[in-house]
Each structure stands twice: as structure tokens, then as C-alpha cells.
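Quick log. Single chain, no ligands specified.
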Amino acid sequence: MKITETKLEGVYVIEPQVFGDARGWFMETYNENKTPQIARFYVQDNQSFSAQKGTLRGIHFQIPPMAQAKLLRCTRGAIMDYAVDIRPDSKTYKQWIAVELSADNKRQIFIPRGFGHAFITLTEDTEVIYKADNYYSPEHDRSILWSDPELGIDWGTDNPIVSEKDKMASLLAELI
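-> predicted structure:
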């Protein structure tokens, strides 16, 4: 596995080694020994399906003590995945990165605790799976408004498909 740190400390892009032949392909998606930078005791696996291109999910995070690190990949279709640094003491506070994850490129992204997470679908019928190192907790769940001008995220569209929950999300300044 090739693991590359991004400009956001602790956020990594993982490119698994894919072995293919006439039958198809095989890859390891996680190996604690080969990727100690993202080694965690993962306690929950999640999967989402988005029927329409342009569906935006996020910007989500959980506050301590239920903060979560996530290891994500797209298993069907393609997404642009976003990590947003919401650690006030970080030198990259309020900065974000975007990484294309797709069923074809098989890339993964690791997003540690202290980051907001979002993705927008680039294709119809898109599936995303991710591991989390802490359980979902509704009491600790938070959302940053996707169009927060302080973050200035380029989603590739001005009119994404957004849930009611995400439409009602707060500005980062109201949460941190």
C-alpha cells in the first residue's frame, strides 16, 4: 500500500496494491502493520448510497469524547471527498483538501479526529463505505453548513442535493 500525507497533518491518501488476472482483482483495504499511520481500533463500519449525481453529504463531525477518525473508500461510482481542519490550534485551521475516490481508482482517505468530513457524488448510483474508530453518537454529532463562506469550499456546483439536516447546519464560527 502506498500512503501519502496531505497538506493537512494526519490526513492520508491510501492507494492499495491491486492484483488482477482473468478472474478479476484482489486488494488489501486495511493492514495495521503496513499502515501504522492510520492504525486504529475501528469499531463501526458504515455504508451510504446516493442515487443522484451532485448529492452532498456533510460537513459532519463528532465532538469529544465521541470524536471519530474515518477510513473511507468509494466502492461504486465516484466522489470528491473533503477533509476540513477544524482544530483551532492547528496551523492549517479552516483549510480543506479534496480527493477523488472512485471504484476505478480504489483510493482511500484517512481523516483523523478533529476534522470535518464531506463528499459530493460525481456519478449516479454511488456507494461509499467507511470505518470509524468511535461509535455514532447523536448527542455529539455536529454539522457545518456546506456553504460556509469562511471555508470557501469549491464543491464543483452551486446547487448540490443536500439533506434537510445539512441545510440547517451551523457556521463553523458558531460551533468552535
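The chain has a mean pLDDT of 97.
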